[in-house]
Every structure is written in structure tokens, then in C-alpha cells.
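Quick illustration, no need to memorize.
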Amino acid sequence: MNSAEYLADSPYARFGDLAIDAPVDARKTFIRKTYAHLTAAIYGLVLIEFLYFKTLDLDNLVPRLFAERWGWLALFGGYMLISWIAQSWATSGASLGKQYVGWSTYVFAFSVILCPMLWIANKFATPIGGQPYSPILVAAVATLAVFSVLTAIVFISRKDFSFLGPILGISSLLIFGAILLGAFGLLNLGTGFCMLLVVFASGAILYDTSNVLHNYRTEQYVAAALALFASVGILFWYILQIVISLSDRR
């Protein structure tokens, strides 16, 4: 893609220089801010989940949610809508304040959809060989390991993975359709499906990390952090489901 095409097609084209073309100091500042915001989003998510578990009667709320198929479907649909709005705010040409609103809104929306899964995971927190075993901790460590390896691949190779964009776009539509069919009991989404979603999320991390180097502009660190957080969140979600599934077979 040449410069003219990029300026025409990219939602980030109005914000400073491309990070890969910017001076070294500006590029380092952009990358540092991006990953600082990603870290802040993760810590914010942990804090919100802690507050949920301390203040809400999840032992009553979560079983009621899963008892009603429409309840879970409505929650998932609301998450999809809010996340789309939040990401559009973060990548828009609006003020930095509005971008932060999009960033924080997405973190909150993901915390709501993640909470029931964490509650289920806690039910499998049993000792193995005398040592405490937490599916959440196992999933978190596995997610960090996968994310670190994928990030290193992009930063060391400096390869542009933008070609994954159309593949991920089509895949996301197919995944959404499969989830809808599963919600209506028309498709059995087992551990194999979760493994496919881990591959999908890994591809998204490669794509988003590549964009940090090649396609985001230096003033778009909020949008870059949000994209990375969304991909890491999906990766953690499905790794956690796999760990829960394996725990259930013990």
C-alpha cells in the first residue's frame, strides 16, 4: 500500500507520523505509551473484577444468568454492541478525552462479560498434589507466555502482518455465527472450538502488534492499546475455557 492509499483508507491517518517513519525518540515514546495503556487496562480489569467478587452476590446472579439462554445471549449481544462503539470512539478523530472514554468503556464491557467465566473458574480452584490450583492463574500465565512470544516475533522480525486483516475479519464473522448457533443449541462448541479461537486470538495479536509498528500513528497510542487489550482478552477468555474444560475432566 502506498502513502496515498494509506491516507485514504486508514482511520489513523490524521494523527501525527506513522510510528515506523517517526524519529527514534518519538517511536519509542509511542510504543512505551501504548504498552503502558495496555498494562493500565489489564490492572483496571483486575481491580473491577475484584470489586465484583467483593460486592456482588455472584453465587446467586451467575446461575440465574446461565439458567436463561436469553440472559446470556443478551449479555453477549450488549458486550458486542458496546465494544464496537467503544472501539469506534478510540479510533475516531475526536478528542483524546473521547478516545479515553472508548478505552475505559471497552475495559468495563469486557469485565462484565468475563465475570461469569471467572466465577465458574473459581469453582475448580482445587489442590493438586498438595499445591493450590487455580484455572485463572494457569490461564493468565499461559496468556502472558503466548502474548510475549508473539510480541517478540513481531518486534524482532519487524514483519508487517497486515495481510492477516481480511482473514481475521472473515473469521470473526464465522465465529460470531457459530456462537449464535451454539447459543440456540444448534451447534456443540467444545474444547476444539476454543482451541481454534486461541489460534484466532494469536493471529489478532500478531496483526495488532504489527500495526503498532507499521500502521498506527504516534498519537494513536490509546487506539493501539485498546486493540491489543481486546486481542489479549479474547486469548485469555478461551485459554481459560480450555483450562476449565480440562479441570472438569479430572
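Residues 1-8, 11-15 have pLDDT under 50 and may be disordered.
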